[in-house]
Amino acid sequence: MKSHFSSGFFAGNRRKLRELFTGTAPMVVTANGLLQRGADSTFAFAQDANFWYLTGIEEPDIVLVMDRDGEYLIMPARSAYQKAFDGSVIAGVLAKRSGVKTVYEAEEGWELLADRLKKVKHVATVTAPPDYIEQYGMYTNPARAALAERLKNLRPGLELVELNKHLISLRMIKQPEEQAAIQAAIDITVAGLKETLQTAKLHKYAHEYEVEAELSRNFRRRGAKGHAFEPIVASGERACVLHNVSNNGALSAKELLLVDTGAELEHYAADITRTVGVGSPSPRQQAVHAAVLDVQRYAFSLLKPGVVLREYEHQVERYMGEKLRELGLLRTMSHKNVRRFYPHGTSHFLGLNVHDAGDYERPLEPGMVLTVEPGIYIPKEAIGVRVEDDVLVTKSGIKILTDKLSRELR
Questions:
Q1: Phi and psi at residue 316, in whole multiples of 5°?
Q2: CA 177 to CA 4: how far, in whole Å?
Q3: HEC states along 273-286?
Q4: Spatial distance between the Cα atoms of 242 and 5, rounded to a whole number of angstroms
Q5: Which of 31, 77, 137, 401 suits 274 as a labelling partner, its CA being 20 to 30 A distant?
Q6: Does the 173-400 domain belong in CATH 3.90.230.10?
Q7: What is the pLDDT of residues 189-232, one digit of tens each?
Q8: Which CATH number fits domain 7-170: 3.40.640.10, 3.40.50.140, 1.10.150.20, 3.40.350.10?
Q9: pTM for this entry
């Protein structure tokens, strides 16, 4: 499969970042590092999205330096063990992929950067997240923090200037190559879901993990790297846990099946959710599903350039409240009451990350890609319904990128 991205794409992103960042400080951006899985094994490597956006490089621990006099890459020092088991990093390959012509071995590159740091008071970089994000209960990749510490050790008193907002601003508007990659990931996902959730096949699955395995097979054989995120295959009451990724429950003809998945192609993600009946849906299940589709249609109608997502979310919440009242789930309309049955947002940005970089106070512009995913969750009735589509903001409204996949409950 031919790549959607040339070295010119990454060189263009670096040029745009230079134009957006008007300071004179050197810009230094690091790749992610490997993370231990156990003993001497690592988790599968996932590149930092910002670093990939600027270089296209898949290797860990590379450092990009962009300065007034040019740009260069610094390769990591590698032990004999790493070279034997993982291979060597080849400078020519990095240069060809990224369009950065100058690539230094670790010692020479860091000496050059250290000399430059003696002459400056500031360095611009992508600032590190906290070591541990309590809201999500997860530890973060330490590469950015390690870079910051190394820079400050090289130049005591050095002040770091953040590049985060500049990269968010660039990444929010998807270029033609990005739109094509996202659409390709979506097309793979749509084809995989169509094949996996055929009525004839659905009746043969006994467990959720069988659906997950079939999706994985369909994505890989169509050219995707795999899943862009841990797929959610949840039936009945399990579908009321928003990120239920265990996928080990038994399927029942009396329950609905919620499948939230997306293929990853060249780092870009699709994100689609469909809810289907394992057997013949009950009138109540049909009513809940119909309400979710109604809310989604309303959300579609609101989206266009100039819309601010935080305001849009309030409008969708009010409309959802009316649907919940019609279903007999609430009497009094309030934020708290609505969120008992609809505890997540309707839309998030989509791109290099499934929850991509974005400013939710910035009005929508053509070229932005986001999801539209209302849902209703009723644990007491073992009903969880979500329908999610991906849309591109256009000059006049939106284009639904996932429109070839039916939203029917069946």
A1: -65, -40
A2: 6
A3: EEEEECCCCCHHHH
A4: 34
A5: 137
A6: yes
A7: 999 999 999 999 999 999 999 999 999 999 999 999 999 999 99
A8: 3.40.350.10
A9: 0.97
Q: Kind of pairing, strands 103-104 and 70-74?
A: parallel
Q: Please report, as a single letter, which amino acid is at residue 329.
A: L
Strands 369-372 and 389-393: antiparallel
Give φ, ψ of 376 to 5 degrees.
-130, 130
CB 242 within 8 A of CB 342: no
Cα–Cα distance measured from residue 3 to residue 181, given in angstroms and rounded to the nearest whole number: 9
pLDDT of residue 69 exceeding 80: yes
How many residues does the structure list for the chain?
410
Strand partners, 36: 42
Amino acid at 360: Y
Residue 58 CB-density burial (10 A; 0-12 exposed, 13-18 middle, 19+ buried): middle
Cα 267 to chain center, whole Å? 9
- Residue 64 phi, psi (nearest 5): -100, 130
Q: What's the CA gap between 90 and 45, in Å, rounded?
A: 18
